[in-house]
Amino acid sequence: MRIAMISEHASPLAVLGGEDAGGQNTHVAELSTALADAGHDVHVYTRRDDGTLPLHVPVRPGVTVVHVPAGPPDTVPKDQLLPYMPEFSRWLVEAWEGDGWLPEVVHAHFWMSGLAGLTAGRKLGLPVVLTYHALGTVKRRYQGARDTSPPRRVDYERALGRSVDRVIAQSGDEVRELARMGIPRSRMSVIPSGVDLTAFAPTGPVVPGDRRRVLSVGRLVERKGFGDVIRAMRLVPDAECVVVGGPPHRQLDTDPEARRLTDLIAECGLTDRVRLAGAVPREEMPAWYRSADVLVAAPWYEPFGLTPLEAMACGVPVVGTAVGGLTDTVVPGLTGDLVPARDPRSLGAAVQRLLTDRVRRTAYATAALDRARTRYSWQRTADQMADVYAAVSRVTEPSRVVA
Ligand code: UDP
Fold first, then answer.
1. Ligand 1, atom 17: nearest CA belongs to which residue?
2. Which atom of ligand 1 is nearest to the CA of 302?
3. Of the ranges 15-24, 52-61, 272-281, which one carries the lowest mean pLDDT score?
4. Cα 336 from Cα 317, distance rounded (Å)
5. Ligand 1 pocket check for 215: Cβ under 6 Å
6. Residue 19 has pLDDT above 60, yes or no
7. Radius of gyration of the chain (CA)
8. Which of 121, 162, 195, 402 has a 20 to 30 A CA-CA distance from 247?
9. What average pLDDT does this structure show over 368-391?
């Protein structure tokens, strides 16, 4: 099938760890790869944010990234991209009408891609599928006045959910949020993200260390709860904690959130055993996970959360906060533990308990690996997604035709 992925701000080719580059980039890249491996032809449309980028970048057989010229050919924060969406969708219509590659289904990622994708898709009579990745209602709840999203984001998200042919929710928690927004459950399918089980596996290189290691990974934004992880480390004597993510290591002192966290580390008297590592290239991430005794994910909210899953696939137990996608991926008492968000005491106690109980750690690690492998392969995700694409485009596969 010809599939158009739209991911306006999150290019599958981007370097991860920056403020606007994280899970969605990985998700789009890996979903596209898995679909291509299953024989589909995928074009990923993302905004051209650098004038030197070629229009088409063939990434691998079956996956082409297309840099859409909409807005300045420069980095623009995602919360300022809305004005360029009409241009984005016009460009799509012209491209699809003109270049001989007409998709059979449009899959938009994030609400702004949804606007561009739906406008273009409706013009050409194409079915449109939407994955939100994050929801304005949730963001507003947690960030309040500091939420820089365009003011009408929630209205757009609601309208999109009622208009597209199918909404893909990534967790049970997201289904409940969407239902509360008034999006009919009949329009939703729950398909969790996958994890690259070849790259993220228990065997392979390990980043050396000489102490027990607590690892936490993600973009350096407040809601990821790294402040809580640092405070929790006061209750975890003897272990070190490494926070991976944010700008490259040498630029950490120019990043306000990194500076805030560095100050907090000093305030807590933890400079000798808690550190920020900065951004780590994707291919080096498995070695970091493998080096950890426990992965701590302490977000205040989390639409899905790839990092717990990546750790689980490397056979590492997770101590997380009981929010969003983590409540599906982590099974408390089996693959890890869940504690309330924004509660460094509970977090510290759970981490300390696990670090001092080797039997429990080994049992969690085995169950975590098993859960990642059986439930979260990209192949499984891609198969489920392809079924949705087929359903919305009313394609009858020949093998299923009843004579
Ligand atoms: N990541 C990375 N290098 C870094 C920090 C993060 O490759 O320095 C990757 C990480 O492995 C994961 C993604 O970025 O695949 C973060 O996804 P997650 O869903 O945890 O968070 P999001 O960024 O979507 O909020």
1. 23
2. 25
3. 15-24
4. 5
5. no
6. no
7. 21
8. 195
9. 97
Tokens found for residue 295: 């992965």
Confidence of residue 179 (pLDDT cuts 50, 70, 90): very high
What mean pLDDT value characterizes the chain? Answer: 94
pLDDT for the residue 398:
41
pLDDT-derived band at 403, boundaries 50, 70, 90: very low
CA of 117 to the centre of ligand 1 (A): 25
* Ligand 1 centroid, distance to 354 Cα (angstroms): 24
What is the Cα–Cα distance from 243 to 224, expressed in whole angstroms? 11
CB 209, CB 240: distance < 8 Å: yes
* φ, ψ for residue 39, nearest 5 deg: 100, 5
DSSP-assigned letter for residue 15: P
Q: Which atom, in ligand 1's list, is nearest to the CA of 133?
A: 24
Determine if ligand 1 sits within 6 Å of the CB of residue 348: no
DSSP string for 233-299: GGGSTT-EEEEE-SS-GGGGGG-HHHHHHHHHHHHTT-TTTEEEEE---GGGHHHHHHT-SEEEE--
Give the integer Cα–Cα distance in Å for 104 and 211: 53
Domain boundaries along the sequence of the chain: 2-194+378-392, 212-375
Query: Which DSSP category does 64 fall into?
Result: E
Does the 212-375 domain belong in CATH 3.30.1490.190?
A: no
25 CB near ligand 1 (under 6 Å): no
pLDDT of amino acid 18: 58
218-277 confidence digits (pLDDT tens): 999 999 999 999 999 999 999 999 999 999 999 999 999 999 999 999 999 999 999 999
Rounded to 5 degrees, what angle do the CA atoms 46, 128, 92 make?
Answer: 40
Task: Tell how far the Cα of 250 is from the centroid of ligand 1, in angstroms.
Answer: 19
- Closest C-alpha residue for ligand 1 atom 24: 23
Scanning the structure block, which residue is given the tokens 């991430």?
Answer: 285
The rounded distance, in Å, linking the Cα atoms of 95 and 98 is: 5
218 lines ligand 1 (CB under 6 A): yes
pLDDT tens digits for range 317-355: 999 999 999 999 999 999 999 999 999 999 999 999 999
Class of domain 2-194+378-392: alpha beta
Whole-prediction pTM: 0.88
